């Protein structure tokens, strides 16, 4: 296993030069100004040096003609220049003894043209000679709110404990945005595109040792050094959860990874088997990724696959059970004792106290609700509770006061029950309820209560956590 | 094949008696008042007779002690009484020569008690003797805005062209609510629970002949007369699309159907094979159901499985392609001609003009967008366009004006392109954008443009429509 490279000054640079800044107003595609704006938004405390062939000042910062003209050390140089210019800029970086470079610049191996691939190869050679490490090329680069870095001014400045390395800048950006709206924030994100120098396992090893990161997430298209990655993953996954989304799972997808990051996607079947052996938590979509992170962060790992399904009425119970069992969970009958106790208070007509539990109308009574929770807590047949509720039912019944009351109960219940609760709040396309859900969610997640948008997503997440839990027990 | 029963006076009754109305204020669980409120909301034009043991008036309507006291004919009697009372009420219905009864009442075969099953059997016998047809028992019954019927006052009063029969009242209610927020409205819905008399194939045959219904949808848990159903389906599906969601696909789900509607779910494998042979369009969740209906209603059937994927950037292109190919679609390279033409205007760096198309930033130019659409229209490799867009990108770039402009273009494009467009508008958990999306959607769907919430859903829908299209060609 390769050791962790020292990337401290990459995520916490003391000075940044941005080559390819622009004097144009507003948004300029592929200009370096977005990075300067990102630093401003993230309260970067070091020095910023825009590089421009003729301008004196950009965004109020003194400009330099070339890297060579900058006085003092430069930890990080961000390349926002055409591919034809990168070798010259790299020469200047070498002379200036720059530590790290990141290339937004695209147009290398991924174009499929031999001459473009040749430039990428030369770039790496020059960097190796000069002891410079490269992020990219063909990527958004670095987001680290604590280090004052971002690739635009729209990323949140709140510091979290998630680390992410992603071959796609788009999916990294979406992960941060989607995460933020679920109360999930990041310590460090690196979008690393073609990975011609620093590779997935380098970022993984660094994040594994970073005490500020508790959960590691990755979007990968292909690995040039797969062995190093899986060796590292195997060592790390039992200590820090490692959630990975693999792009290029299909024939068409694999073709697309070549055009995107020049990645050879490889056999997805082999990939899956490697993930299992390395304790990686696999996900296959943005939703799966975000809600898996939420559950890893907020819920205790499940001790078994048996769930109680509460919510909806009869049809909902049937279809939720289908979703659960298709995901690999089980919906067993409650224990004889639980059934007998519930039958004391809940009529047989129009209800079911077996499992799925079709008893929602009877839970308007606080005593009934409490009794059910006590039974579920004790019931040896049940490892977790899936509670699916249409937010409109509470809101229309009991208004905002009722919703607040429900939220208070749920935040307390999670800890008391000692079994994970997968709370599903449905809003069925209603924009007003959706906004209410977002509000409610903020309070819930602040109390370590995970909220899911659909039963299918929740069931898939629990299955993944169950597999991870079993891996941890075995390893 | 059994012929269609005459259910006209069931959906368009001239008079309704509600046995089990309540004098209590507000919402009363399992009382008949919800049906009276439903009739009021739906502007029912016939006579309403509440039946109550002592009240003189309920909701302003004159009350009757029993069915027998009502003067004149009664087309439909709604039972909202305990199971212990239903045989007596049925006797009265027989004396009054009632045409149809519907039982909200539960507590029959589905409880698992032999005595309860016996009552259901006797109920059916009495009805047969008297020539009365039964909806249910253990169900919400009828929603038909044109006939003035609904099981509560919250269902929309807008009349549409979808017919639905569902063994679950909850899923029927959710379908109507979710449908409404996607601009999909219903002509007739029947929630028919235990189906002890009128069965799935009766409703299917009736809806097949109803000229007011263009698309038929069903949620089913089990069929007691499967042969009659599939024979009918086979005859109907090529003429009217028939979308079916089967509950009880798994072991646990099948156990739940027994507690719910006393249905024997049967082998799901056999079910799937029967659906294929009968040209049924199968769905497995509320989202799949709603968006399949939307596509059936709004998009032309696909001529092949090859799609162009437009939207997002590189990572999005890769993962969307994965989703498409996993769903059974294909993302081939565009034709040589298309690629060459696109390369004339779009730089190779940071883009891909193969397929998936990673060229979104270059489509800010109207000329480029038009050129792309012309190429896609002509390209023999492409059967449909998947266009995925984060609504925030347009909104932040060009504000509401830009969004409106985009909507205008999309509504025109659908017809002009002559290939179905699967438009995916993403909002990534942003409540404000979600509300904007709902607004935008109203305009789009009014112009026969289908909008999908995620790429996965859209890909699954197109695959289903492709299978259906192939079935129609063969049959």
What does this entry look like structurally?
The structure is a homodimer of 475-residue chains. Chain A folds into three domains: 8-135, NAD(P)-binding Rossmann-like Domain (Rossmann fold); 141-298, Rossmann fold (3-Layer(aba) Sandwich), CATH 3.40.50.261; 307-474, Succinyl-CoA synthetase domains (Rossmann fold, 3-Layer(aba) Sandwich), CATH 3.40.50.261. In chain A, 44% of the residues lie in helices and 15% in strands. Chain A has helices at 8-11, 33-41, 86-95, 114-130, 169-180, 200-209, 226-236, 251-261, 268-278, 286-298, 314-326, 336-345, 366-378, 391-417, 431-446, 455-474; strands spanning 15-19, 47-51, 57-58, 61-62, 76-79, 100-103, 133-135, 141-143, 162-166, 186-191, 215-220, 242-246, 281-283, 307-311, 384-390, 421-426, 451-452. In chain A, helix 6 (200-209) runs parallel beside helix 7. At the A-B interface, helix 5, helix 8, helix 11 and helix 15 of A face helix 5, helix 8, helix 11 and helix 15 of B.
